[in-house]
Amino acid sequence: MIYCRKLRHIFTLLVITLPLFLIAEPTAEEGKTLFRNYCASCHAKNMKSDMTGPALAGLEERWSDYPREDLYNWVRNSQALIKAGHPRATELWNKWGSVMTAWPNLTDDNVESIIAYVNAVDSGEMGGKAVVAITAEETEDEKSNSWVYLLLAGILGLMALLLTRIIGNLNQIAAAKEGDFVERGSWTDIFASKGAITFLLFAGVIFLGYTTVSSAVNFGRQEGYAPDQPIKFSHETHAGLHKIDCEYCHDGARRSKHAVIPATNTCMNCHSAIKNGSVYGTAEITKIYASIGYDPNESKYIEDYDNLEADSVKAIFTKWIGDQYVAFTDDVDELNSEGEKVVEEQWKGIVTSLTHSEKEKVQGPIEWTRIHNLPDHAYFNHSQHVTVGKLECQACHGKVEAMEVVEQHAPLSMGWCINCHRQTEVQFGDNDYYQSFVKYHDELANGTRDKVTVEDIGGLECQKCHY
Hints:
Number of helices: 21
Strand order of the largest sheet: 1-2
Structural class: mainly alpha
CATH class of the domain at 21-123: Mainly Alpha
CATH architecture of the domain at 21-123: Orthogonal Bundle
Strand content: under 5%
Distance between the termini: 59 Å
CATH topology of the domain at 21-123: Cytochrome Bc1 Complex, Chain D, domain 2
Number of strands: 2
Radius of gyration: 32 Å
């Protein structure tokens, strides 16, 4: 039994110390993640611009007259260093006067990783951008550390099996010395034992709990998500090349909670005249006509279109596609075999895009695939941001005018929204909505305040988004 207790102590020691062997050296990549989580709300990402806090480029040189440990302590708890009368800490406090959040959980290696990232951005080795949280220029997915946890779980599981086997052998030897005979248990007996089953159930509960929470937290965080749509609509062509205002199609953004997906009749405002696309010809625009019931051959809407037979619908639009093929092919007087193939492929594309198992007819609305999706417990109002806050659409959705296929640009996470509210200045000028904030208007006028952020007017109150 003494052997068993010693082995248990060894096992416990290994469990505690094993993660230490998996900790990597400080790196700029790790620093990038740490900078986002701890520093980005007050320090500029380009490392060269001043924000709430000073530009971080050259911080090592500025702290070079003091022990490295002082820099670590400054990052972990700046106020403690100021109270201790540290010269550099006092100098920074007198100049900036802003309280830096204490991060006592950061290790020396964490701080070194942040410094490595700062130096890498400053030298141009890694990209850095000015912090404007609402633009969210960085869309790279952070590297996952899942393999570390899986490796650790595998090693611990293997050790548990080996130690269980060793303890069983030692118990058998101890029993033999006392004159008792204990039959050695097989691997099946070990796995079927009460302890093993309890452990597996406990591990299963932990795994399922972690998976559930992780999935809930990551719900809607799908940067770069760009699903195929029923119609190959190019924002680059419409918003970029032709300069169509976002609110012309998404007119709900200025007057309601939802930006709304434009109805097909909005498309028809232009496409009753523009009948051939610059890239796909008739292939995509004809889907609009087939959806709403517009006969491009006659330039008029089709009567009783919803009740029209499928063959009649097909005849109208295949004739249109065929006529256009002939019209745009100089050396063809009538539809040839190649043209017939084009007509059939385009009609098949119309049917595929506008029908599915629950919608058998081509007639009816275009069912676009949703890209941005906030959880139900989070309230977001487009008009509040667009009309009152006067934000540009690109602030959250990126440079949509340059996107051939629209994708989710920002993470839309709680932290991303909070950082935006901390950094975004309220546009008081010529905005009657904010006239009630008399105190802030007076402070701006007499120079005691240089800006008002969304945080200042209650933008971080929980009930604003979760009521």
